[in-house]
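Structure first, sequence second, as always.
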């Protein structure tokens, strides 16, 4: 049995996303399953060390995860040849400097999005890592959500015919903290700490649209800060300075129009926290995080507008659920396994820092559109 032990520096995993999705549901689960299987006689086994600024949190996380190693001294491990990969899940503003340090020390880099606070820094980071000759990747987890994979299969089988439009609804009510504690960190709502839903979610919508439907050509975006005051982790009131909602329309190559509403100030009355409806000449589909429903042209009802009587059509009844045709794992774990294979076996991994820079570019263009109240072109990178 051949086992490739791969040392991974995991920086910033005491935060919500790093802890839950990357450590507990990805790396820990990969270790539990015996590593990433390459063949019946070859596996990749992660060997993580947790890095952060709070030693008490790191100790607690080691006890929870079973990971034995941690340190508050990044420099002590960044030059250690025992670790091949540097993973970054810190707040956005701290990412570029740490990634450059890792790349300078020959580490392969995998990091959360957005990869930087602005496009110039993001594309510079990509160029830096390319010149350093290391492998690099960015988290683009929604591509492996069961609901979106089902959409992808429908596209591959030409279910939609010509795709006309896409409508996305994302978000939920994030409590302000005055009575009910907030379920997201306070920095998300402070512009000075790189918060804001536009820089967060338009990075996601970029890779979803580019990979499933077509490259984004232009954007019209309106942001808003609906909730003016929130309560932080210490119980103190603070002014919300970042956008907490975004209403964006995208023009894609091929003439497809996509519109996404993203909000932390919306109450959910839909199938899931994220739903994406795709309408085409032959049929339509609505996908959530896990489920997907379709309506073929032949099953499409013929409504007639008459507000004076109850509508005789039960619209939900005309949709069919796409069955489970494959096994779906945690989306973050799937991409981690692909990146590990990329590092060890040089398997293809197209989701590199250039793709991450495209997400930052779209977010930046969205902010420009909001400021100008105008459509903004999105140049090809």
């Amino acid at each position: 049995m051949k086992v490739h032990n791969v040392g991974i520096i995991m920086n910033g995993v005491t935060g919500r996303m790093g802890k839950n999705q990357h450590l507990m549901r990805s790396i820990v689960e990969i270790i539990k399953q015996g590593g990433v299987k390459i063949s019946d006689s070859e596996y990749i086994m992660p060997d993580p060390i947790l890095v952060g600024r709070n030693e008490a949190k790191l100790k607690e996380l080691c006890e929870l995860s079973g990971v034995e190693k941690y340190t508050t001294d990044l420099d002590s491990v960044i030059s250690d040849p025992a670790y091949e990969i540097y993973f970054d899940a810190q707040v956005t503003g701290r990412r570029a400097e740490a990634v450059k340090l890792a790349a300078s020390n020959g580490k392969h880099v995998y990091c959360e999005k957005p990869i930087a606070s602005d496009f110039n820094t993001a594309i510079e980071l990509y160029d830096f890592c390319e010149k350093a000759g290391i492998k690099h990747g960015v988290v683009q987890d929604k591509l492996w959500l069961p609901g979106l994979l089902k959409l992808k299969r429908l596209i591959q089988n030409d279910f939609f015919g010509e795709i006309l439009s896409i409508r996305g609804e994302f978000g939920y009510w994030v409590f302000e903290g005055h009575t009910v504690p907030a379920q997201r960190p306070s920095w998300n709502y402070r512009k000075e700490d790189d918060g804001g839903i536009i820089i967060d979610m338009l990075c996601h919508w970029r890779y979803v649209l580019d990979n499933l439907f077509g490259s984004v050509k232009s954007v019209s975006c309106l942001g808003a800060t609906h909730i003016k005051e929130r309560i932080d982790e210490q119980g103190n009131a603070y002014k919300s300075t970042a956008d907490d909602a975004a209403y964006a329309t995208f023009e894609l190559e091929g003439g497809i129009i996509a519109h996404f509403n993203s909000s932390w100030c919306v109450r959910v009355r839909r199938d899931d926290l994220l739903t994406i409806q795709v309408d085409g000449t032959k049929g339509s589909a609505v996908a959530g995080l896990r489920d997907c429903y379709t309506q073929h042209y032949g099953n499409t009802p013929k409504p007639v507008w008459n507000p004076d009587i109850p509508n005789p059509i039960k619209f939900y009844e005309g949709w069919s659920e796409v069955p489970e045709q494959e096994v779906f794992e945690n989306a973050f774990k799937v991409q981690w396994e692909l990146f590990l294979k990329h590092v060890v076996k040089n398997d293809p991994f197209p989701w590199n820092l250039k793709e991450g820079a495209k997400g930052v570019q779209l977010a930046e263009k969205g902010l420009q559109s909001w400021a100008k109240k105008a459509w903004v072109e999105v140049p090809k990178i």
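Margin note: The mean pLDDT is 97.
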